[in-house]
Amino acid sequence: MSNKKENFARFGMAAKGAVYSLIGVLTALAAFGQGGQQTGSKGAMQYLAQQSYGQILLVILGLGLLGYVFWRMYQVFANPKGFEDNLKGYGKRVAFFISGLIYAGFSFYAFKLAFGSSSGSSSSMMGSLMSGSNGDTIAIIIGAGMAIKAIYDLYRAYSNKFREEVEEAGMDREAQKLLINAGKVGHTARGVVIGLMAYLTLSSGLSSGNKISTTTDAFSYIQNEFGSIALGIVAIGLVAYGVYMFIKAKYPAISVKSLR
């Protein structure tokens, strides 16, 4: 793969890291009473839109997220890691495809905000879909998918495979230690947040509430049930996940070696 395409993929990882870092910082500040706000990806972009040079920042972020979409789609269609044609292999590629679609949506939203529009047909379309007769079924399916993702993140945080991948990447010892620690903390925090989103979404679907829970819903649940300190710890964990993505973007041996 050409260096330009590889750099585009690495730019995408850095953009994803920036989004998570901003979500974590804003939510941690809110948890500790220092301003900020409980927010998810779209809220973080709305915050950027209100800053000086916000339009430029959003355009850069939108382009970066397109790089992440490119990376995911390359994993799906080029299959650089050689996933086998079985249930496990197809499952991973489907997960990559869904991830790509999600970040394509975030990229589109960043561009819409940059050029003066925050409303979109996607949210209204989802609202219409969820209000239909199959809304509860859709909520249950999405909630189950979230639960699987949460379990995978927690597995990723503590599996020996994760450590082996880092140790085999040819990084120096200090960089390895930082990546492993940031990855563990970050994947744990993300697993907790997505797990709570899954729980709230499944609960809604099973009670015919037909609501897809968001990151902000998970943050509110943590604060209401466990307090602001717990929310702050989880938010800092999301900042660690952002740092993890920055490190992956910097070291091609761990980030995009499969694209070569």
UniProtKB/TrEMBL annotation:
User: What is the protein name stated in its UniProt record?
Assistant: DUF1206 domain-containing protein
Q: Does the keyword Transmembrane helix apply?
A: yes
- Its domain of life? Bacteria
Q: Name one Pfam family in it.
A: DUF1206
Membrane-traversing stretches? 12-33, 53-74, 94-115, 135-155, 187-206, 226-247
Organism of provenance: Christiangramia lutea
Q: Where is the DUF1206 domain?
A: 11-76, 95-158, 185-251
Keyword field contains DNA-binding: no
Keywords assigned by UniProt, alphabetized: Membrane, Transmembrane, Transmembrane helix
